[in-house]
UniProtKB/TrEMBL annotation:
This is Glutamate synthase subunit beta. PROSITE patterns: 4FE4S_FER_2. Keywords: Amino-acid biosynthesis, Glutamate biosynthesis, Oxidoreductase. The keyword Ion transport does not apply.
């Protein structure tokens, strides 16, 4: 174990961010480079060597957290990296982007601030890259079997890497012009610089994985023909259909889904565009939706030079402490201040948009809202609370309703859907079509990156067993598993 008195001797200390006035002028990650390493050994020492480490239950990957905390405490970075990679293909992604349900389940968190598991994780993997400990792991022999993976987000990449290492010949199909899915174009650069994706892609190429960009299955290639070409197919196309807001004035110019707005900003950082066609510069911006995607829109608007940024949320403002009905070790709904919120703007809770107001040219100019409350399980407007706020750019960040069903993929494969509109699958992650599997949000619905990687790893085991009759690949979750919540 780490220091037996570590949690008594050291308080929780997290990564330091760069000053707001500095970071809003660029798109680099918000954290101060090198600020973690001097403190991370002490932070890792706070791990308690619990009799039952509930962080394992909070993390769907089953990360061996106490083990790599111990190695980080002793600064044995190579061993820490080995333990980290034993359960997670891409810890530099989760260490930056995951909301850390493991920390919510940390036993120390019962009566103290939990261990900074996420910061320890990202420190280990960054050190591993610096030390050259992350190397390609090509298979010793090939199976002669071929697999197509549709989608290159975290679920698709995890499945592809596992299957490649198992000896199968894997090709990943991505409809965008670069590999990475929402990691590439949905996550702003200031949350994760894309160099982290690029070097993983190079590792996977060296292992033997093939990548096909700008190829959409269902439109560019008939899904049924793809199935005949490969021995197995993994659908990891994500949950990409954005939830809309059918309010009067929705068709005004200047109202966009978050996934129309954010990718263009990332395209600028990739060098494809000089200026985003949808820019917040000089505009009053309203973000509808209080989750992480909404916060990404807030931070992007700040960097584009918005006059003001207002974020709306229909639910009440969460508390700063656990509610009694969200006890440890469940993941609580807490008031969270992200780096984007630190940079400015206003957050308004318990409000609903009634309609949008436009000018004579059809451009949105204002948004009308009303305060709401829940009564007997129903959402009701509070009379006399209507108001108008200026809005020349509105982004809708209200989540997603399922995988894309308009491109023909679902119909051409002949896939069955579950009651929530996701692609149905059995215990091996196999759909109703033999040899066609589904992993990630396409089967689970909108979820977290850590669940996507767990799904990709688990689906890979099902594919491997289908192709060879048996599999030694790990499967951390079942399709029916859900987050530790109430």
């Amino acid at each position: 174990m780490a220091d037996p008195k570590g949690f008594l001797n050291h308080d929780r200390e997290v990564a330091k961010t760069r000053p707001v006035e500095e970071r809003v002028k660029d798109w680099n990650e918000v954290y101060q480079p090198g600020s973690l390493l001097p403190i991370i050994s002490k932070q890792a020492s706070r791990c308690m060597d619990c009799g039952i480490p509930f962080c394992h239950n909070g993390c769907p990957l089953g990360n061996l957290i106490p083990e790599w905390n111990d190695y980080a405490y002793r600064e044995d970075w190579e061993a820490a990296s080995e333990r980290l990679h034993a359960t997670n293909n891409f810890p530099e992604f989760t260490g930056r982007l995951c909301p850390a349900p493991c920390e919510a389940a940390c036993v120390l968190g019962i009566n103290q601030p939990p261990v900074t598991i996420k910061n320890v994780e990202v420190s280990i993997i960054d050190k591993a890259w610096d030390n050259g400990d992350v190397t390609p792991q090509p298979p010793e022999r090939l199976s002669g079997k071929t697999v197509a993976v549709i989608g290159s987000g975290p679920a698709g990449l995890a499945a592809a890497q596992q299957l490649t290492r198992a000896g199968h010949t894997v090709a990943v199909y991505e409809r965008a012009d670069r590999i990475g899915g929402l990691l590439r174009y949905g996550i702003p650069e200031f949350k994760m610089e894309k160099r982290h994706i690029n070097r993983r892609i190079e590792q996977m190429r060296a292992e033997g994985t093939k990548f096909r960009t700008e190829t959409e299955i269902g439109r560019d290639i008939d899904a049924a023909k793809l199935r005949r070409r490969y021995d197995a197919v993994v659908i990891a196309a994500g949950s990409t259909t954005s939830r809309d807001l059918p309010a009067p004035g929705r068709d005004l110019k200047g109202i966009h889904f978050a996934m129309e707005y954010l990718p263009l900003a990332n395209k600028v950082q990739e060098g494809d565009l000089t200026v985003s066609p949808i820019s917040a510069e000089g505009k009053h911006v309203v973000v509808i939706g209080g989750g992480d995607t909404g916060a990404d829109c807030v931070g992007t608007a700040h960097r584009q030079g918005a006059l003001s940024v207002t974020q709306l949320e229909i639910m009440p403002k969460p508390g700063e402490e656990r509610n009694a009905n969200q006890p440890w070790p469940t993941f609580p709904m807490l008031y969270k201040v992200t780096s984007a919120h630190e940079e400015g703007g206003e957050r308004i809770y318990s409000v609903n948009t009634t309609h949008f107001e436009g000018d004579e040219d059809g451009n949105v100019q204002a948004l009308h809202l009303v305060e709401v409350e829940f009564k007997d399980g129903k959402l009701e407007q509070k009379p006399g609370t209507e108001r108008r706020i200026p809005a020349q750019l509105v982004t809708l960040a209200m989540g997603f309703t399922g995988t894309d069903k308009e491109n023909g993929l679902v119909e051409q494969f002949g896939l069955e859907l579950d009651e929530r509109g996701n692609i149905a699958r059995n215990a091996d992650f196999e759909t109703n079509v033999p040899g066609v599997f589904v992993a990630g949000d396409a089967g689970r619905g909108q979820s977290l990156i850590v669940w996507a990687i767990a799904e990709g790893r688990s689906a890979a085991k099902g594919v491997d067993r289908f192709l060879t009759g048996a599999s030694s690949l790990p499967a951390p979750i079942k399709p029916t598993d859900r987050a530790l919540a109430v």
